[in-house]
Amino acid sequence: MSSNGNSKISSSRPYWIALLVLVLLFGAYLLMPLISGKGRLPVVMPSPAFSMPDLDGNTITQTQYDGKIRLMSFIFTRCPDICPVTTANMVELQRKLQEKGWFGSKVAFLSATFDPDNDTPEVLRGYAERMGIDSSGWTLLRPQQEETIRLAEQYGLSIQKLDDDQYIHSVTSLLLIDDQQQVRMIYKMGEEMDNEQVMQDITYLVDNLSKNE
């Protein structure tokens, strides 16, 4: 009887080994995107095309940022809290990118106003000077209000004008766009913005400029 029992164990062993191998292979398949880095920042959506004027009236399009990482925000200068805090955080990121030699060459910032009646070129230039915006790598866009709102909606963001000429907009509306015009992350703005995480994500994309999906 002992011999028969050993025979049964021996005959079932190849089955269990094969099952274990299948489990390990399936696990490796699931982990492969993370190991290779491709799952680090999944593609959220394609970044829509745009054509908008800067403060000097020059037409800026998305194709000008092919091959560069882009951090994009939607703002209005009369905003009392979220917009200036976000811009201040972006200025800090600007400083770190300048130290690495990436700002303007590998990484560009864009901010589009949705309040052009108040945000004249002079107002936006004053805002840029006060906040410490470096125009060598950071472009301020001043399209018609309808254009900005339409572009924001294409990103899945919401901007609404109130009766007192103030605005409410999506708090999660800071966009990280890769060198192939793909949105890779959408961050919270204002005090909830995590500069360390944003910098890590930018660094990841810069390190993979020629490998993006």
Let me know the largest β-sheet.
6 strands, mixed
| CATH topology (fold) name of the largest domain | Glutaredoxin
Q: How many discrete structural domains? A: 2
Classify the secondary structure makeup into a structural class: alpha+beta
Query: Largest beta sheet: what is the strand line-up?
Result: 1-10-9-4-5-6
- Percent range for helical residues? 40-55%
The first-level CATH class of the largest domain is given as Alpha Beta
| Element order: H for helix, E for strand | HEEEEHEHEHEEEEH
Tell me the strand percentage band.
15-25%
What ranges have pLDDT less than 50 throughout 5 or more consecutive residues? Answer: 25-38
CATH superfamily of the largest domain: Glutaredoxin
Shape: globular
Count up the helices: 5
Distance between the termini: 60 Å
Named at the architecture level, the CATH assignment of the largest domain is 3-Layer(aba) Sandwich
Task: Please give a structural write-up.
The protein has 213 residues and is of the alpha+beta class. It is 41% helix and 21% strand. The strands form three sheets. A six-stranded mixed beta sheet has the order 1-10-9-4-5-6, with helices on both faces. The protein starts with a helix and ends in a 6-residue tail after the last helix.
Question: TL;DR of this structure?
Answer:
The chain has 213 residues and is an alpha+beta fold. The protein has helices at residues 2-36, 82-100, 121-131, 145-154, 195-207, and strands at 45-46, 51-53, 59-61, 69-75, 107-113, 138-141, 159-161, 167-169, 172-177, 182-188. The termini are far apart.
